[in-house]
Write a structure and sequence with these properties.
By secondary structure, the chain is of the alpha/beta class. The protein has 9 helices and 6 strands; from the N terminus they run H-E-E-E-H-E-H-H-H-H-E-H-E-H-H. It is globular.
Length: 252
Amino acid sequence: MYHKLGYETIAFIPSMTSTISEKSAKRNAEQVLGMMEERVASRTRQHASPRDNRGDASNASPSPVSFVAHSFSGNGIYTFGRALELAQLRNVKLRYRGLIFDSTPPKIDVDRFVRGFVGGIKARSRSGAAQDLDPAFYQHWLLTPLAYFSLFLVFHGKHYQEFQENVLNQLPQRIPSLFIYSKRDILVPPQDVEAFIAEFQKRGASKIERLFFTDSGHIMHYKMHPEEYEKKVADFLHECNEEFEHKNQDEL
């Protein structure tokens, strides 16, 4: 979709183990931040190199490298939040134009964690098939008890259960945000998303947009409504670009 709209992308699918392993979560964050830093460095080198017959690009004023973060499901926003945290610790300055939340963020509790973990594994075992609208999809005779065992006896989930607070502390608040969610999402119901939006607004977020569906399941919105999804994202990106460029002009 983004290539069709004319945007460069960085794609990363976090491992399922990041939800039960602090080491894995940190490794995912390292990878995401490293990919973003490399993109910034690459674009900076391009702008600093000569351009065919039009002179030296170093004499030009290149547009600032910036990102729109598009996160899917709980593990996606959790990984992005950890990358933001790591960037802050390392004093890495990255610029964002906007944030897109697809089927996220969830409210974490024990049962929700287990359902999400089992659903994620089953979806990947189906070669990337999206989650089903049937609650039985999030259960498995072997995976479900193993997930509970992991949660209670191996991993107590503190770093993941507290992720919403951590994400709220790290997210850029004064840029546009788009939340895409559905009434039929079993794993992340609309009340979870609305509760997060309310808290996000309390912390200063003011430019909130929504795309709400009534019939699509978890991370199934684009598959079921491609035209509406793509149009909303394209319009949102246009607004993000206009606001970003306006801010840049004010800073000059």
